[in-house]
Every structure is written in C-alpha cells, then in structure tokens.
Amino acid sequence: MPSEASILDKVVKDTISAIETGKRQIYDIAEHTMAEYNRLKNELAEVKKEVVDLIDEVDNLALLERKARVRLAEVSKNFHLYTEADIKKAYEDVQDKKLRLMDLKGREKLLRYKRDNLELSLRRIKDMLDKAEKLASHLAAVTNYLNSDLANITSRFLELEQLQNLGVNIIRAQEEERRKVARDIHDGPAQLLANIVMRAEFCLKLMEIDHNKVKEELTALQQMVRQSLQDVRKIIFDLRPMVLDDLGLIPAIRRYFEEFTAEAGLTAELVTTGDNRRFATTIEVALFRVFQECLSNIRKHAAATQLLVKIEVLHNKVNMSVKDNGAGFNPKNVMADKKSEGYGLIGMRERIQILKGEFSVTSVPKKGTSIHISVPLED
Q1: How many CB atoms lie within 10 A of CB 328?
Q2: Which residue windows are coiled coil (predicted)?
Q3: H helix or E strand, kind and range, residue 220
Q4: Going by CATH, does the domain composed of 165-240 fall within 3.30.1050?
C-alpha cells in the first residue's frame, strides 16, 4: 500500500507531466501558426507588388485611352480629311483600349480585395500567435514553480487527505476538456473552414464564367468566415476568457452571465456588492470555473425560467450564490450516483476546498436549487 506522501508526490508529478504535455502542444500550435503567418506575409507582399504594377498599367492605359479618344474626336471633326478606314481604325482603337481598361480595373479591384483580406487574416493570425506564446509562457511559469516547490509539497498537502485523487481528477478533467474542444472545433470551425475552401474554389472557377455571380458567392463566403471566427472566439473564451486575465473575476462573470442569459432566454439578475478588485489568480480561476459549472447545470438539467446570482466581496472573503427555480434534485442521491458524476458538484466542492472555502447545495425536486460558496481572501 503506497504511503500518503508517495501518493501526493505522484499527484504532483502527474500534474507537472500533464502541464508539460499541454505546453508542448501549445508550442506546436505556435510553430504551425508562425509558419502560416510567414506564408500569408509572403503572399501579401506578392499581392501588394501585383497591385502596384497593375495600378501603373491602368494609369498608362488610361493615358493611351484618352489620347485615342482625342484622336477619334479629331478624325470625326475633320472627316473630309480622312478616309473611312482611318475613322474606323480610330474608333476601334478607342473601343479596344476602353475594354482593356475595364478589364484591368476589374482585376485591380479583385487584387485590392484580396490584399485587404490577406491583411485582415495576417492580423488575426498574429493575434492568435501572441495568445499562444502568452499561454506557453504561463504554463512554463507554472511548471517552474511546481518543480522548485516539489520538496515541500508533501507536507503542505497532508492535511488534505480527502483530495488524494486530485491529480487523477485533474488529468480526467483535462482529457474531458480536450474532447469537448475537439468536438466543438470539429462540429463548428472545421466544418465551416472545409466549406469555405470549397466555396473559394467555386468562386475561382466562377470568375471565368459569371462576374456578377462571384459577388454573391463572396458575400456568402464572408458570412461563413465571420461565423467561423465567432465559433473560434467562443471556444477560446470557454477555455480561458481573456477578460479574466485582463480585468478580473467580476467583469468575466458579468460577460459570461450576459451571454448565457441571452442564449438561455430566461429571466435573470446578477447582483454584485463590495469592492470590484482583483484577487489571486487561483481564486479567480476557481470561482469562475465553479460559476461556469453552475450555469452549465442549469442549462442541461434545470429547465429553469428564473435565475439569481449574487456576489459579495468583503474585506476577508468572497461569497457567491446561484439560485434557480428549475427542476431541482436530491443532492445526496446525485452525489452518490457515479454515473451522473454529481452534476460536477464533486469537482466544484474540491475546487473550493482547495482554497479552504465553504461549498453547500440546497435543492428540492420541482422547487429549484441554491448553491452557496464562500472563499477566504488573504491580505
């Protein structure tokens, strides 16, 4: 039978290993994103050069077209001095240059559109690259901290015997989160991007047949790209909302609450009292994840029509309560049912216990559910 110390050491090592795996995956994403960024950058440079060359060609042809029109006017005005062949040639020269000029201007317009879209894509790729590098830096800092503090980790966690399986739970949660992200990407952006590629190929073929139809197809293509971008942003927000890092817990909860209530279509109220200040990262992340899980349960199981969220920031603690008027349940039965995984209640309770906080659930079938959380704050 392994000792508690060895179990805790294994938990920490497994956690570090999982973080290292995630860090390598982030580095791979950053590497591929950098390759795509360089490819787009080179393509943009080529398109810009084509635009400049085409503008010069348009300007030169426009000058020749004006001279041809002047020549035609002169011939027409003095038709008695010129033969019919001269007049016909002057007219055909004007028409030829006019048609060529229209064709060049059309190509110039398409190249400008392509250039603008490449610049937009380049900015988005650069933004994604910056986020990947930032996330990799955070993971490296976490790994360094855990490695440096491994010698003292056993003594710190002996008092938390009930959380011996924390490492396994974290790994399981990571795998579940990866499955969810993979499913969301496959069902959303991946499908849209495949469709976008097909539609783009269709547009290229259509340009040779019907220019008017191309505009309609490009408009539809633009809408698909916007939808794909919206889906990607939602996935990124679910993984780690940037507003949580930038502004803190309360703004992140408020934004998630607004998006949730807009989608769920229920009567909801968010009440916050106290000082809207920043807390330790561990507290902000834990409370935000618990809040997400609460709302996820309401969406999946409660069938509620009313929701009330209260957050109270005091000098030495943060209190949060989430109440709904939904279907309710028997907390003892749900926590004991391994198949249901406790609606995520065990994971929520463990997050709060790690922070030495209090977590309680009050629920009655057909009468709604109330979840109360209290987390102490250090000076």
Answers
A1: 19
A2: 30-64
A3: helix 211-239
A4: no
What distance, in Å, lies between the first and last C-alpha atoms of the chain?
A: 40
Rounded CA gap, 299 and 344, in Å?
Answer: 13
Listed in sequence order, the residues at least 6 apart from 299 whose beta carbon sits closer than 8 Å to its beta carbon are 260, 264
Tell me the pTM.
Answer: 0.45
Question: Of the given ranges (166-170, 206-210, 275-279, 351-355), which has the lowest mean pLDDT?
Answer: 166-170
Q: Cα-atom radius of gyration of the chain, to the nearest Å?
A: 32
pLDDT at 240: 63
Question: How many other CB atoms sit within 10 Å of the CB of residue 59?
Answer: 11
Task: Give the CATH architecture of domain 242-376.
Answer: 2-Layer Sandwich (3.30)
Written as six digits, the tokens of 215 are 């505009």
For residues 100-121, give the mean pLDDT.
Answer: 85
If 0-12 CB within 10 Å is exposed, 13-18 middle and 19+ buried, where does residue 244 land? buried
CA distance linking residue 175 with residue 10, whole number of Å: 18
Q: pLDDT tens digits for 196-236?
A: 777 777 777 767 776 677 777 777 777 777 777 777 766 66
Tell whether the model's pLDDT for residue 311 goes beyond 90. Answer: yes
Q: Is the pLDDT of residue 16 over 90?
A: no
Tell whether the model's pLDDT for residue 313 goes beyond 70.
Answer: yes
Q: How would you classify the pairing of strands 369-376 and 317-324?
A: antiparallel
Question: What single DSSP character describes residue 340?
Answer: T
Residue 337, both tokens: 């049912």
| Helix, coil or strand: residue 269 | strand
Domain ranges, ordered by start, for the chain: 1-155, 165-240, 242-376
CATH number of 1-155: 1.10.287.1700
pLDDT at 359 over 80: yes
> Which pairs from 273-277 meet CB under 8 Å and 24+ separation?
273/310, 273/311, 273/312, 273/313, 274/311, 274/312, 274/313, 274/314, 275/313, 276/248, 276/250, 276/251, 276/313, 277/248, 277/313
